[in-house]
Amino acid sequence: MALVLLVTTALGLVLGHFVWTSRISLAPSQDLPSGATPFGPGSNSSSGQSSFAEGAPANAAALAKAVVPDLVDINTAISYQTLEGAGTGMVLTSDGEILTNNHVIEGATTISVTDIGNGRTYRADVVGYDRSVDVAVLRLVGASGLKTVATGTSATAAAGEGVVAVGNAYGSGSTTTFAAGKITALHQSITAEDSATGTTEQLSGLMETNAAIVPGDSGGALVDSAGRVVGMVTAGSGSFRFPSSASSGYAVPIDTALSVASRISAGRSSATVHVGPTPFLGVLVQSSGSAAAGAAIAEIVSGGPAASAGLQPGDVITGIDSQGVASPEELTAALLRFRPGATIRVHYLSSSAKAETTTVQLASGPPQ
């Protein structure tokens, strides 16, 4: 199931896919949920063992050990569907600015972060995110004196270069394992597909690696042979996966990730960058499945804005204010233009196919 708060698609909310990676991650001693399988060329930590693929740096273990104190374990919870997940982040500033994948935290109602360097656990606030490049920035509450990650540049990265991926594999709560390999390609574009809902996410400009990246590694460090971070690991699950070779994993180039993070930290919103609290409509939606384009409401969050406005399961949302909505994805994009507290007009087709309009005051919800 996907879980997000603006809207959802099929069995999950549209503004975030819980099944992307870390949210289905479990400790190695547990079984993965039905239908969830590791993504990548192998399972590097379900057995507590690190992995080596062709082209791996000879000093992979030392490289991994050096970067571990600069990482954090991220644990999330989604209270609306009692779901939990785990992922990884990199420490950018000593006072607790954290870089991670957007899909690690999307839909989360609470985020708890453990800094590996000092062993302390902090509550985390979401500063902002960019869904188009899968980047998010968190701020740890009350943090100081943290060790920060040493970043290099992805501009000079080349195919064939040895790399090591380090992260909270399978949400085990530690980064004692790593996945070593090499960069196999640059500037890759992929379509990540949610097999449960049929929805997709388009990501481009990615680094491809043969390192055995698995769920939970997302948001972790892809380190070059000099010990510098050149990419931010991303991963897929059995339900939300990249339709590519089983020997391929991906990472967001660090130059791209840091550029987006800088805009977020500076409070510069854009068509893709969302800064600050996320608006909350309180519906779970799916494709309409009929000739009428729109986002069909599958469920209503009890006590939420949509419920208060009289929207009901079976209604199909077709527009927000003057902007048309032809799909769950378009509903997400339309809602993210607003701030919590804004009053919007929701245009929809009732279950009897009658065109209706209602006024909704958006609440504040989890990141999407």
Describe the structure.
This protein has 368 residues and is mainly beta. It folds into two domains: 18-265, Thrombin, subunit H (Beta Barrel), CATH 2.40.10.120; 277-365, Roll (Pdz3 Domain), CATH 2.30.42.10. It is 10% helix and 36% strand. It has five helices and 23 strands. The strands form four sheets. A six-stranded antiparallel beta barrel has the order 8-9-10-14-12-11. A six-stranded antiparallel beta barrel has the order 2-3-4-7-6-5. A hairpin with a 5-residue loop joins strand 5 and strand 6. Mean pLDDT is 82; it is low at 1-47 and 194-198.
State the main characteristics:
elongated; 5 helices; 23 strands; six-stranded antiparallel barrel; Thrombin, subunit H; disordered N terminus; 368 residues
